[in-house]
Amino acid sequence: MGSKANQMLKLRIVIIGLFVIFVLLLSVSISRYSKGKKTRGREFESHPQFEDLCAETLPTCEKLPSAVAQTLLHYAANNVTPQQTTAEIKITAGVLGRLSPCNMLVFGLGYDSLLWATLNHGGRTIFLEEDEEWIAKMREKHPELESHFVEYPADTMVTDAYDLLKYAVSEPECVPQGREELEFSRCKLVLRNLPAEIYSREWDAIMIDAPKGYFPEAPGRMHAIYTSAVLAFSSTRPTHVFVHDVNRSVEDIYSNTFLCTHNLVAAQGSLWHFTIPPKPTSFTTFCST
Length: 289
Fold this sequence. Notes:
The structure is a single chain. 41% of the residues lie in helices and 16% in strands. It is of the alpha/beta class. Strands 7-6-5-8-9-11-10 form a seven-stranded mixed beta sheet, sandwiched between helices. A two-stranded antiparallel ribbon has the order 1-4. The relative contact order is 0.11.
C-alpha cells in the first residue's frame, strides 16, 4: 500500500515538474521597446543605443494561460493516476516539448488526456473514445478537451487479431495507401467511421492507448494501429507514433508489422515510440524486409 502511495506521489511530482518547466519557457520573453515608449518611468528619445539596451536587458512576463493553470491545479489537487508510468510519460512529454504546438491524435480518453492536451498547448489535440458514457462524463468535467466517439467493427475483438492479421498481409486492399482514401478503403482493418478531419489532417504525433484490449472479448487495437500506420506513412513530414501496452501480444505483433521494427526509436516499460519518416515517392509495403 505504501509503495503504491509513493509511486502516485512521485508521478504527481513529475507531472507538476513538467508543467513548471513548460510554464518557465512560456512565461518569460524578451521585449523590444520601440522608440518613445515609457521604460522605468522615463521616456527615452529615439536613440538606437537605448533601443538595443532595452532589447537586451528588460524582460517582460506574460500571463499564465488559463488552460495550463487549470491543469496544474487538477493534478496537484486530485489523486488520479494516469494510465502510464512516470518513465513512459516522460518519453511523450519530451517529444511534445520539441514539437508543440502541433497536431496530436490520441486513441483513448483517460486520466492523462488533460496532460497531453496541455503539453500541446496552442496545438490541436483530438481524442477518440469508444465509450459514449465516459465521453459525456469527461466533457462535463473537462469541456476544453476535444473528443469524438468511435465505434469499432464487430470483428475487432482480441480473439480476432490473428485472423485479421493473416487476412491483412495477403489482401491487396490492405497495401499502403493515402490517408485520403482511407474512408473508402475496403480493407477490414481500416477505421472508416472517423470524423473527416482525421483523414485530411497531417498528424505530428499519434498516441494509441485504446480501445481496451485487456481480455479476449474486448475490442482490440488492431484497427487503431493499422489506421495510424496509414496516416503516418502517408504524411509529408515525420510522424511520432506511441503505442502503449506493448507487453500484450496484439500491440506487440501489430506494431512490428505495420509500424516497423526499424522505426522504433525508444522504449520504456510498456510504451514504444516509433518515428515514421515522411512519405516516400512510392511504396507497396509498410515494412521493408
